[in-house]
Design a protein that fits this description.
DNA-binding protein; 8 helices; globular; five-stranded mixed β-sheet; SatD; about 50% helix
Length: about 210
């Protein structure tokens, strides 16, 4: 399972963004979550999913506007799950807590942590996520616009018509942002995260899995 803990950056000097983020996550990914996402502290949210793709997409969405630090925890959780994610327990929650604390010290504001061994493998995943985030940080407004349209189901021709540019210009924007490579990298990362999680989750909960 994947547990995400996201903490709003400098929330004392910013609007409360938790409610809006929770609504976005529920609307876009609600069916893939094991429990509804919740606010777990004044400026923090938490969620759990069995889908590596969903975990990665939510993390990337939160990190897009630079208002969040995000920790992704891999590992087992206690079952049956309770009614609330705030009551859920297991090594994956401890890993997510360690990850969000580590994210505070990273330029990308994101970290990945596992719950049981295989530290090199998890560190490799974190480095790949950092690379993806660093590449995305270089995108122009036009690159993000093209990304959003293509991810929404438009073809490049459709996107060109919506934006009011030629298909050739749309193709140039997509190439400049590396959108095809980004999509391929996300697919690969999702598979690697899923593989790592299966390895982590094979080790059952311990007596220390009481923190969320």
């Amino acid at each position: 399972m994947f547990v995400i803990i996201a903490d709003q950056i400098d929330s004392r000097h910013d609007d409360d963004r938790v409610a809006g983020a929770l609504a976005d996550i529920e609307r876009e990914h609600g069916e893939a979550l094991a429990l509804p996402p919740e606010r777990t502290a004044g400026d923090e949210l938490q969620l759990i999913t069995a889908s590596a793709e969903t975990a990665l997409e939510i993390a990337l969405h939160l990190l897009r506007d630079e208002h969040w630090r995000v920790g992704i925890g891999l590992g087992a959780v206690r079952t049956p799950l309770p009614d609330s994610v705030r009551e859920a327990r297991g090594p994956a929650f401890l890993a997510a807590r360690a990850a969000v604390e580590a994210a505070d010290r990273r330029p990308t504001h994101c970290a990945v942590r596992g719950s049981s061994g295989d530290e090199d493998r998890v560190a490799d995943l974190g480095a790949l996520v950092d690379l993806l985030l660093t590449q995305r940080a270089r995108w122009s407004e036009q690159g993000w616009e093209m990304h959003d349209l293509l991810e929404g189901g438009d073809t490049q021709a459709d996107a060109a018509e919506r934006i009011g540019i030629t298909p050739q210009a749309a193709s140039k924007r997509a190439r400049a942002a590396g959108l095809k490579l980004d999509a391929e990298a996300r697919a690969s990362l999702s598979r690697l995260l899923a593989d790592a999680d299966r390895s982590q989750s094979a080790v059952g909960p311990t007596s220390e899995d009481t923190a969320a």
